[in-house]
Amino acid sequence: MNKILFFAQLRERLECENVLIDVSGLSVSELREFLAQKNEHWKTWILDKDVLVAINQTLAAGDSRIESGDEIAMFPPVTGG
Known about the structure:
The chain is of the alpha+beta class. It has helices at residues 8-14, 28-38, 43-46, and strands at 2-6, 18-21, 52-55, 58-59, 71-75. It has a single domain, classed as Ubiquitin-like (UB roll) (Roll), CATH 3.10.20. Strand 3 and strand 4 (58-59) form a beta hairpin.
């Protein structure tokens, strides 16, 4: 089982703080496709190329694999000054 957390504007746009679902074995890219298919409202935001994904608090590439128990965070790019 995996916990997927949504942060900042992404959380607001999806109207969801987190989901608990088994996505072990998927890559980050496959996870995006999977979530986009689960909810039509989410499609635009989840597939946005600027959305960052972290696995266990480490930024992950599109081909990174998710294992059982991994915590996944999705968030928009952070800017600051």
